[in-house]
Amino acid sequence: MAMEYEEYRRHDGLGLAELIRKGEVSREEVFEAACRAIERGNPRLGAVVRTRFERARAEAATVATESPFAGVPTLTKDLLMAIQGEPLAFGSAALAEWRPPMDSTLVTRLRQAGFAILGQTATPELGLMGITEPRAFPHPVNPWLPSHSPGGSSGGAAAAVAAGLVPLAMAGDGGGSIRIPASYCGLFGLKPSRGRVPQGPMHAEVWQGAVVEHAVTRSVRDSAALLDAINGMDEGGPYPVKHEQSFRAALERPPEPLRVAVSLGDPLGKPLGSVLDPEVRQAVEAAARTLQGLDHHVEWADPPVDGERLANAYLTLYLGHLTADLAWIARETGVPVTRLEVEPSTRAIARLGRSLPVRDYELAKRDWNSAARAMGAFHRRYDVLLMPVVAAPAPRLGELYPPPAHERLMSLLAIPGLPALALKAGMLRHLARDALARTPFTQLANLTGQPAMSLPLHVTPAGLPVGVQVIGAMGDECRLLALAAQVEAEVRWGRHLPRPWQDG
C-alpha cells in the first residue's frame, strides 16, 4: 500500500527511519512518497533544480536498515555537494554542463548514514546572495506565503523542507545561508563550528573557512543525528577536528542553567543602516522570556564588535574569493573569464575583487581574528548570545534582486581603472549597506567560526515565520543543541508548519 503524503509529512527523518526499522512502512514506500511529493509540489514551489530518482532508487535498495537514517530521502544543494559524474551548476549557467570528477566527503557520509539523495536544490549564483533568484534556474517560493522569498543561499533547501517534500535537506552557510532561510521558512537551522564538517576532497576550506555545510530540519534531533554522522575531518583536511558521536546524546537532558546575553544586534545593524522590524524585536524579547522561564539567567548585553568593520572585512574576503571562483570556473570549463555566462552583478563584483590589494585582503582576515578573540572573551561571561537572525521577515520575491539601473551602473566597472577607483572611493562600504542591511546579524559567527542556530519561534500576523538566533562558544554545539531541544519541547514549534503544499 502506498504511503499517503499526510502520513509521510507528519514525520521527521528519524521518525521515518524508525517506521522503516519497525517494519510499519517499507523503505520503498517512503522513497516513493517523497518522489510523488516532489513531482506534485515542485512545479509550483521551484525548490528542486534537478532530480535523480532512478539512481537514488538503486542506491536506496542497498541501504542497511540499521543505519541512522535507514533510507530516508533528502536533497543536496546545487553548490559544493558533488556527486561524481552528475551535474553541479552552483546556480550558474556557466557551470550548467559541468560534472564533478568525484563525490564530496559530505555526500559519501550521507550515503553511509543511510540517506537516499533524490536531487539538488536551488541556490543563487555561486551562493552569493541572501535570496535565491538565479537567472539560470527557477526561483523557489516561500511555502508560508508564495509571494515571498525563502531566503538564501539555501533557499531551495528550506522551501523543500517547509513544504514537506523531504524531512530535512542539506544546506551551507557562509554568511547566514542556513540560518536566514531557516528563519524565513520556520525551520531549525544549525551552522556548526568552523571545520566541524569537512569539505573535501575538492576543497579544503571555502571562503577562508567562513562556509560550513550542514542542513535545515524540522526537528532538533534530526540536526543532531545528522551532525553525528557527518562531522570530523577527512583525509588531508585543514582542521584537526576528530569525529564525535555526542550530539544526539546531548539532547537526552536539558542544559544546566545558562548565562544568556540578549541583544537586538545594534553594534552589527546600526552601522549598516538596518531597521529592526517590530516583529523581529517581539520574537527576540519573547525568546528571552522563554529562556528565563526555563531557569536560565538572562540579561541584555551586546556583542563586543564593530559592525561596519566586520561587514567590510567579510565583503573584502567575499570579493577576493569570487574573483578566484570565476578563474576556477574558467579553468574547469575551458571558457575564458570574460566569456563566462554569469550574472551582471556577479561579474561586476568580481571586477572589484581583481582590483583588491593583497594587503587589504590580509588585513580583513586579521579583523576576523580580532572579532573571534573578542567573542571568546565575551563567552567567558556568557554561555550563549541570543540575537535576531534577520532585521525583517522574508522579503517579497524580486524585492532584493539588483534592479536593471543598478546593474547598468555596475557594468561601468568594465572601464579600465574604475574598479580600483571605486574601492578607494568607499564602494565597499556602499556594498556592505546594500548587501547586508537586511541581514547584518549572521556574518559574525561565520567570521569567528562559532556555532550558531536559528530557532523557529515566531510567526507574524501576515503568516511569515521569524527565527531567533543563538550563538555559542567555539566548538560548543552540544550545549546549543541541548538548549534547542529544551526550547523545542517547551514551545512545540512542530505545530507551526505551512498548510500541506499539495492543497493549494
Average residue pLDDT: 93
- Strand proportion: 5-15%
Largest sheet: 8 strands, mixed
Please count the helical segments.
18
**Low-pLDDT stretches:** none
Helix percent reads: 40-55%
Order of helices and strands: HHHEHEHEHEHEEHEHHEHHHEHHHHEEH
Compute the number of strand runs. 11
Order of neighbouring strands in the sheet with most strands: 4-6-5-10-11-9-7-8
3D shape: globular
Q: Indicate the radius of gyration in whole angstroms.
A: 21 Å
Helix and strand composition category: alpha/beta
Query: First CA to last CA: what distance?
Result: 25 Å
Description:
- The protein has 504 residues and is an alpha/beta fold.
- The chain is built from 18 helices and eleven strands.
- It has helices at residues 5-10, 13-22, 27-45, 53-60, 105-112, 155-162, 179-185, 220-230, 266-269, 278-293, 307-333, 344-354, 358-381, 404-411, 418-424, 427-436, 443-448, 477-491, and strands spanning 48-51, 73-77, 116-121, 168-173, 188-191, 212-217, 259-262, 297-300, 384-388, 452-459, 465-472.
- The strands form two sheets. An eight-stranded mixed β-sheet has the order 4-6-5-10-11-9-7-8, with helices on both faces. A three-stranded mixed β-sheet has the order 1-3-2.
- Helix 5 links the parallel strand 2 and strand 3.
- It is globular.
- The two termini are 25 Å apart.
- The relative contact order is 0.14.
Structural topology:
Layout: H1 5-10, H2 13-22, H3 27-45, E1 48-51, H4 53-60, E2 73-77, H5 105-112, E3 116-121, H6 155-162, E4 168-173, H7 179-185, E5 188-191, E6 212-217, H8 220-230, E7 259-262, H9 266-269, H10 278-293, E8 297-300, H11 307-333, H12 344-354, H13 358-381, E9 384-388, H14 404-411, H15 418-424, H16 427-436, H17 443-448, E10 452-459, E11 465-472, H18 477-491
Parallel strand pairs: 2-3, 7-8, 7-9
Antiparallel strand pairs: 1-3, 4-6, 5-6, 5-10, 9-11, 10-11
